[in-house]
Amino acid sequence: MATLYIDNRPYDVKEGKNLLETCLTLGFDLPYFCWHPAMGSVGACRQCAIKIFKDENDTAGRLVMSCMEPVGKETRISLDHPDAEKFRKSVIEWLMTNHPHDCAVCDEGGSCHLQDMTVMTGHNYRRFEFPKRTYVNQYLGPLINHEMNRCIQCYRCVRFYKDYAGGKDLDVYAAHNHVYFGREKDGILESEFSGNLAEICPTGVFTDKTLKQHYSRKWDFTFAPSVCQHCSLGCNIIAGERYGELRQITSRYNGDVNGYFICDRGRFGYEAANSVDRIYQPALKEENVSLNQEYIINDIAALLSTSNCVGIGSPRASLESNFALQQLVGNGNYYSGWSDEEHRLNKAALNILQNRTAEIVSLKQIEQYDSILILGEDLTNTAPMAALTVRQAVRKKPVENAQQNINLATWHDAALREYIQQRHSDLFILHPHSTKLDEIATQVSYSTPHEIAAKGFTIAAAIDATADQVIDQIATSLLNAQKPLIITGTSLFNEPLLAAAEAIVKALKKRGKQPGIFITQADCNSMGLAMMNVPPLSSAFSKLSDSTLIILETDLYRNLSTEKADEIMNLPKRIIVFDHIKSTTSEKADIKVPVGMFSEADGTIVNNEGRAQRFFQVFVPKNEWLKESWRWLSLLKALKDGKAIDENLSISNIQSTLVEALPQFRGIEDAALSEDFRLNGQKVPRAPHRYSGRTAMLSNENVSEPKPPQDIDSPMSFTMEGYRGIPPSSVTPFFWSPGWNSVQSINKFQIEIGGPLHDGNPGVRLVNSNSSITPIDFEQKTEKISLKEFEWQLVPVYHIFGSEELSAKAPAIAELTPKPYLGLNQYSLAKLNLQENDMATIEHHGRAYQLPVRLRAEINNEVALILFGLPQTAFFVKPVIIKIRPASNGITNNNSKHE
Amino acid sequence: MSETLNYWLVIVGILFVLLNIAAFLIWVERRMLALWQDRLGPNRAGPFGLLIILADTLKLFFKEDWIPPFADRHVFVIAPAVIVISVLLSFAIIPFAPAIQIVDLNIGLLFFLGMSSLGVYSIVLGGWASNNKYSLLGALRGASQMISYEVFMGLSLMGVVMLSGSFSLRTIVEAQKDYWFVLLQPVGFVIFFIAGIAETHRLPFDIPEAESELVAGFHSEYSGMKFGMFFIGEYLGITLISSITVALFFGGWLGPAFLPPLAWFAIKTAGFILFFILLRASLPRPRYDQLMEYGWKILLPLTLLNLLVTGGIILFLNQP
Amino acid sequence: MLSIIRSIWLTFLHLFHKTETIQYPEEKVQLRPRYRGRIVLTRDPDNQERCVGCYLCAAACPVDCIALQATENEEGRRYPEFFRINFSRCIFCGFCEEACPTYAIQLIPDFEMAEYDRQNLVYEKEDLLINSQGKYPGYNYYKVAGLDAGVKGKGEGTNEEPPVDRHSLLP
Hints:
Chain A: Pfam families: Fer2_4 (PF13510), Fer4_Nqo3 (PF22117), Molybdop_Fe4S4 (PF04879), Molybdopterin (PF00384), NADH-G_4Fe-4S_3 (PF10588). Chain A is an alpha/beta fold and 899 residues long.
């Protein structure tokens, strides 16, 4: 501990941090631009100037940039010194000489760091009378809008894009007072994290282009804390609504999960909620008529009570919804929506976490590991934020070295990067094809999934053997590391991979290491569904004939082959689908019932590390049908049992029954505060206090304002009325504090800058240790796959945009979704006598599909890559062996009408 | 038989006239206030805007008669009736003219004091039953104001009683044949009138209402004809205090013979009513503590002094 | 005490003063140009809508009676998709006019807008938009803003330098 004297008042602070973050931690308002808590200091903007004094007798002092000055044992500074204040004011004035008179048409206005800082420093009049500098803008793709005139040259964008996120195509051009931040020429930004530029940029140079389609100011949104639904990581997000439409997703700081950032899929995938593919009306298939409430209540309930019901759950529905379905159909009649492979994979993932051989690593904790082995996972495309954290993790060792060797603090960004250059700690990637992380990897090898698993077992064996026998480079590195980490996942549908990962961590543990394990999965609640411990779809077959099948928020045609899915769909007497978006399954169902998407529903989902996180309803949709699935299913259960319908059924009612029935979920009630919670007797408002238009927004329909909707599920109100101040972290709908309108107000919500939120990061880890220690199994469970002539092993390749079901429905994401292709290497192409972009015919299960081929030079001779998850490649649901031949005329198939 | 009939006619007549005067005062007050404030006041409905009375009454009758769900229902309903009844009962002892008086009680003055004290129940109960913090504050203020001012209201009249030797109002009026008691009891008159204003909680002593602080105080929650009762009660109160003042200090119906006694009484009373309105037009409301201080520290000693001096003089003059 | 009597007396004397009342509607009142009455949306010199949908009027409104939605034409010029004022809530405080950075929203000296049906007091953009520049003729926001929204190109606005050549390192 050190003592910091600020304007002669002593404060106990941590030594070694910089003065800026220390002052901000202490709650002082100090303006800054170029410093960012996640990216450190470079001292470029000169905005955070303060006075520092030699000792108590020093009255003159000297001006320093607080972000570049460490806290010493006894430091004396002044924030209010007239010299410092005047300096800061002048700096803003200079920055503002060229800033355009644009705020009214700028999307940043109202949540603009530059506005905040200008007000904070007191600059209010432009004395400079000369012309303003102008720039021509660039087209940067469908996600990010560019308006270069507004730039204040803080360099944050390139520091984030290039240095932090590893992007290549955004840079700084020109020189002097007319530097230009953009691309070499117009084009789509390549990084998967480009959306963060909108939050990183202190002003309106980079803004959210999808927001522009339905622009609202920050003060006009109704926000709710939510959890991203587009991959298994469960990044925390803030979802914003205006006029009954979901309009914006921004990152919600969680020091354990996503930190300050989110990926572009999470940020821009939200438009699926407003997609034309939403189901808005319950309908019968044959008549295609809309149903009324009575039909639902009487006929469906009658249907349920007369026939035997089977329920199919979903890895993308909340725990509560899955549980409500289980309750409705009965324990023995409830199945997961998974194929056998997926079921085994997700169970295996859960088992590894439960065995607790390795530390379960949260997303943000990846950054603390200094040797990382990625076994068969293309993080950038399956779990993008994990790729971003891995990029930070590989800097760990060099940063530590810098600290030890030249005493350079971790926040000294520019100096550190200069010192580190290209050095990085060990990262090994074993994958069928090249990935974006290859550029920072120590060693990469491309092989078939089975070979990767085999390699994994070899590494485990090498680690397990005595020290002098270790020859494998990967094994050596993992053994020598302070904190080794194994990252694997379910995306290759290869169970031995997980077994291999487990073998490695067990071996490391045996050698006295504390290895970490991080397993990515397919969907936002895959882990939750695995924890429910329900049999896979295939077990349901015997019960299906003549039954009523209820399918919850899942598309069987994505998880099963078309033949198998058709088989299931043909067996039952009646099929009822509860879903929010149209899918092949919902279109084939007899009755479809609309439900609320994450923005219209409350629920809890469990992310890949077993962390239960609550997402809150953002707004009450006008369409009364859009209720949470669990509300629908509980209603039907009440009707089926002939009980009274509980109009006030809240999420905590269902959670308490859930925990009672499934004790493994003990703790989900603590993922967020219960609906009874009040601060000073008040609810927490979802809308900012300057929310506008309340008495006019609905007056075109009726001049008498309706009663605001009540929220029975959460301690938050849907209006601006309620507690003003910093709410508990799990119910923080948005970040704002007086004088800090931009996202930078997050500083006020943290215990210390970059640390946990005020009452702890929200979310509860559910996976508990399962004390039984099982022996290591080095048995290579991989079967050697033998391929015949003209046979290839089809391996899925994922793309951040398009491979995930929901986000693919968002127009901006759809624009960036690549065209489907079949990836083959030179040898394979030559063998087939094909050129790039030629059509190839794939034979699978007796059907033929056509796709253009693309050269992927790095892949194995036996491997053919196919883009996963697109409608055109829907026939492909797990790794299979296929026959490929050059396309001949005449053979086409419905499933491959791509061009 | 005819005496009973006559008796009933007087009662009904007085009741009718009083209620009409109260309604008429709605118009008078607005027009007069307007004139003193350089405005015109209600001048649209009917000749001189007289029909505003009708409009206002109709409005009050047709307004939603709302009883707040949080109110104490029964008390809430009774409260406004109390003030009207207690004030109307007070009129029973007023001698409007030699022949027009409902009852000539020998303790008329005491009856009046008693009845006017009962009026405070209306405020206290109304404020209490409304179950609203402003109403309750208003009620509390009303009660303490009444208690304070009632003390010297009674005492200030004792001078008159000493001079006339009776509590009967008729006797008191007749005792003023030679000179009005205002000449003998100027201090008593002033104090009684001030206490009277406070008693009717009219401006500047409308502390229980104080719309700028207490959003109408004890009757915040009242609407429709229940509010109307408070409204009428207030105008009746003005009329009562004016009549009493006339009867006690200005010779009641006495006056030169070219006008009938009733006319004299009406003219004098009207003058005081207008003075009430003038007060409202000209004076600001004192603070609550100032009001109490004024009552207890100035008016009460002054009244006692007045009593002492009057008594002394009477004793001196009556010395055998 | 004397001052109280004096003020009673002075108030009494007002009985003999001339009244100030204007007998509207027989007599009309002469209002100042800056009188805060009916709210209108004005137009630019190029006859396009002045409102750029910045939401500042809505935010400034103390009774929250302004609701709008901004949208853009293909040139990037912003305009309100809808603009609604609920005059049954409006208190004519003029904060919206003060907040407006483009002089689009203006209060004019017309107050005769009473209705028998409250619903008719909800004004949409068609009811608000007038064919005039109002109190500030000649002003065009896009001429002074940096943005290129089809009104002027980058660097062609008032007090602007021509766009920077980003490939040049010359000072």
